[in-house]
Design goal:
The protein is mainly β. It is 3% helix and 32% strand.
């Protein structure tokens, strides 16, 4: 950025201009584009995850089920990473289906002002995107209209499909004494990459009312086959009469799927 020298205009007869002062003639000349920005970061609010993963790893895997994808420069990096000459400028967000190849500078999916050395902006078309991996980048535009080169791309995986495990049951009565009997529920859980193998088993007395929140046990599905089983133990305590069982499973994006409720007939029906 440079200042063009101040001066006074004169006509052919040597008359100087009087309608303007030298302060009026100061012009800032900036032909240089901003430095290449860092890749945008998906905000924690839109980087969804399973509760167990949030508790241990937070929300930083960029695998999400969110309908709205919001990006920022201030997530996990200081806002001062943006070049100083972009103050008062803008940032443009780009979406691509590939990790490489130049995006069209004239075709951003969103534009936002740079405020306080940072920005926050959302992809308005993210709700209509199919499941898959998309690559986001930004370009900076300074006040002089210079555009930076494209930033590195952030890969974001959209996964809005919940895994759906199956469930069936078998009943074993060792003697006529109910205390020695048991009910086993078993089934298969999806075990593709991203499907979490800890399963939530719920057994509720009577109908399925309340089964959505009542947790009985957590079992681990087999990593190779997805198979699992859980034995309730004694037929006493709710198994004498009918009850309902259900299994639920999360994936990395935080989608939760459940089997259809299974009725477990008790000894008394």
């Amino acid at each position: 950025m440079a200042s063009i020298a101040e001066g006074r205009a004169r006509d052919g007869f040597g008359n100087g201009n009087v309608a303007s002062t030298s302060a009026d003639a100061t012009v800032l000349y900036d032909p240089s584009p901003p430095a290449v920005p860092i890749a945008p970061d998906l905000t924690a609010a839109t980087d969804t995850s399973a509760p167990s993963l949030i508790a241990t790893n937070g929300r930083a895997d960029d695998i999400t089920r969110s309908e709205t994808l919001t990006f920022t420069s201030a997530e996990a990096v200081p806002a001062t990473t943006l070049p100083a000459d972009t103050a008062g400028g803008s940032v443009r967000l780009y979406r691509s289906t590939t990790a490489t190849g130049a995006s069209d500078p004239a075709q951003p999916v969103a534009i936002a002002e740079i405020v306080g050395g940072g920005y926050t902006l959302s992809d308005p078309g993210s709700a209509g995107l199919a499941d898959g991996t998309y690559h986001y980048s930004v370009r900076l535009l300074d006040r002089a209209g210079n555009t930076s080169a494209e930033s590195p791309r952030l890969a974001v995986t959209l996964d809005r499909s919940a895994p759906v495990p199956s469930m069936a049951y078998t009943r074993s009565i060792v003697t006529l004494v109910p205390l020695l009997g048991s009910v086993t529920v078993a089934g298969t859980a999806p075990h593709a990459p991203g499907d979490l193998l800890p399963l939530d088993i719920r057994v509720c007395s009577g109908s399925s009312t309340g089964c959505a929140t009542a947790s009985t046990a957590t079992v681990m599905a087999d990593a190779s086959t997805g198979s699992y089983s859980y034995t309730t133990g004694s037929l006493l305590g709710g198994i004498l009469s009918s009850s309902t069982a259900q299994v639920s499973q999360y994936d990395r994006a935080g989608n939760r799927g459940s089997s259809a409720p299974v009725t477990l007939p008790g000894l008394l029906g």
